[in-house]
């Protein structure tokens, strides 16, 4: 057992672990700046809904400064896995480790407090509020002194200034005016607002659920650039997507789910899109 191995994980490895180890041995490179110590790690997660098995002993590793894509057919367990990692669901069995420490998320707020931010497909932005207000939605900053502590006056000027800084840090040039209501923005710009909010507060991990769904080619490319910018900033990203070209463009490693299990972990260098689809459908083993 290595120094970073969770307690109780020694002994016979599960089939899922063996598959993951085989995929790594078959050519999965070490992500840049990674000492092979995962920032986020799940071990043998199990989640059932009555007689329906959502997860059947799934393991996952996310390393610093990488984009890990999760793909799989409908019903493969992608959403259940993400919900367990982000506190929306509590696994029946298994362990989750963040920065080498065991964590037990009982609700999404627990994951957010620990530094895991999730951008869901529906974005969860408020159309009537401006860009800056959406970036600080639920985390509004108050003015200093009595105005903030007693009268709870929002520091609108300060939030707008920080919003501009966050957008600039991510290289988002399509949002010049942070006072514009989100309802006036395009789909890609709204996605940029949601990603910027996650980057501003997700100090450890950002999870993106189908970020390019329902977007045009140009806007999708802008979102993919955002994902790359997050990685360049050193923020590890979990990307859930059905779009194979997008996955192979930005992912460092690809976790493939099938029938509630991890079928394989591959890379764009070791496997083709055809290979990934074959593993996903069961036509080929990892």
TrEMBL record:
Coiled coil: none
Keywords from the named record: ATP-binding, Nucleotide-binding
SMART domains, per database record: AAA
MF terms (GO), sorted A to Z: ATP binding; ATP hydrolysis activity
Domain ABC transporter: 40-284
Alphabetized InterPro entries for the sequence: AAA+_ATPase (IPR003593), ABC_carbohydrate_import_ATPase (IPR050107), ABC_transporter-like_ATP-bd (IPR003439), ABC_transporter-like_CS (IPR017871), P-loop_NTPase (IPR027417)
Pfam families linked: ABC_tran
Name of the protein this chain belongs to: Sugar ABC transporter ATP-binding protein
